[in-house]
Amino acid sequence: MRLAIIGGGASAVTLMDALARSTPGEKITVSIFEPRAVLGPGRPYQEDADSALINRPADSMSVRHTDPLDFRNWLREAGRSGEFPSADPEARFQPRRLFGIYLRRRLAAAAAKLVVGGGAVEMCTATVEDVYSAAGRLVTLASTGVAEAHDHVVLCLGTPRPADIYGLTGRPGFVADPYPLSEPLPAGEPVTVLGSNLSAVDIAVALLRRGHTAPIRLISRNGLLPSVRCQPAAIDPAEAGQLAEAVQLTPPASLWTTVRRLLHGRLVAHGGSAHEMALDLAAGEPAAGRLARQLGRTDAADCWRAVLLPLLDPVGELFWQRLPLRMRESFLRRHNTSIATVLNPMPPATAALLLEALRTGALEVHSGITAVNASPGGGFMVTAAGKNHRAGVLLNAARATPYDPVEPAGRLLGRLAARGLARPHPCGGVYVDFTTNRVLGPASGLYALGHPAAGDIYYANAGSLLGISARAERIVARIRRGSTTGTTTLATSSTLTIGGRLDG
């Protein structure tokens, strides 16, 4: 049996690890296609400065959802061996580069185990330009011109790059992709960052920690920084069961209203504040005041984020899948930006650093961006809230849009759609079967893992490594069963259920 994995980042590592740990069956040959020379880290976890930290706690960054402490334990073992003398294995938030090394090691171990079991692993330094069906198999056409037939193909395309909304790529002074964060910038040059999300925060923190002396400016549409991570409250099994039952049994058209009612009841029962929730989700509060307020609530048991988010996490995937398509589209259009600030919070230490920079004037946060233009004499003019801000260096941290059709991942998805092997999902990626992650269409051996499946698996879950690991195991289970026949048509997919209206 032959398996192709398109992409060599964290999603591919979880798939390889799950494959190596699965019950051996038919001998398998795996081809991993990745244009980067180093497999495993992908864009987010490549070699970088130690100041570039992961924004998730180390205890939730494992490639094995059944063993969330795998990365932490690997760090401890590496610490005992003296491999990383400057690292603190017990630190809650670890450098990205260390996680990248962990991914490389887990990938190498998985490949070695498959080879020992009689299989083979091929690392192909190339992009995949096309996938098509031939004689009941899936054929990959690589950028090297080599075509190979496979029984199964898994799309592990990673996170889309930041969107170049204003068409500035190639302009002097414009950095289209901020990673790696260790890339040098003129020390005395003011820096403007397009965006105020986690990527923008990463840029600001990296600059501040390396002693950047000139002002740093974050400019976005809403000016919302990510929330400050707080300690989650304990989950009451009875409440969790009630919510899970509601998500499973409530008719889709009334699901949003029912879940909101249950969550409001839990918030009130735990002394949480609806006013605090409204403040966190709304734009307009000054960035310094917002950070100071949230830093004062990181250990508060009645903080709404501590009360509600742990309860939502186990049912998030099913809730999203059961929402009618119109509600999903409305949610993404009206609420996704503010919800993303809560679902992707920053570490308290990061928030404290930003707050100090805001108070001293080293950092500014602006909202209301409407235009960015290249200036005739060099540099850029950024218009926000009716004011013009001149920028010599402009770093792009704009929210990623669907895969750019010019990029390899976008080109491939476009060709799959043109061949009828996949259908673009209006909420991102392609339509997939919720249970197996199989791409819905005539090819039963085609799967999507991570962000290519975000339309049917809400991106907060699709992008969570533990969530990706659980999904990888489902794909591996189906592959190991040798399921290479049968189709599921788009017309019968429950993901196409349409109806209802999303209330604000």
TrEMBL record:
<dbReference type="Pfam" id="PF13454">
    <property type="entry name" value="NAD_binding_9"/>
</dbReference>
<feature type="domain" description="FAD-dependent urate hydroxylase HpyO/Asp monooxygenase CreE-like FAD/NAD(P)-binding">
    <location>
        <begin position="4"/>
        <end position="159"/>
    </location>
</feature>
<dbReference type="InterPro" id="IPR036188">
    <property type="entry name" value="FAD/NAD-bd_sf"/>
</dbReference>
<dbReference type="InterPro" id="IPR038732">
    <property type="entry name" value="HpyO/CreE_NAD-binding"/>
</dbReference>
<dbReference type="InterPro" id="IPR052189">
    <property type="entry name" value="L-asp_N-monooxygenase_NS-form"/>
</dbReference>
<protein>
    <recommendedName>
        <fullName>FAD-dependent urate hydroxylase HpyO/Asp monooxygenase CreE-like FAD/NAD(P)-binding domain-containing protein</fullName>
    </recommendedName>
</protein>
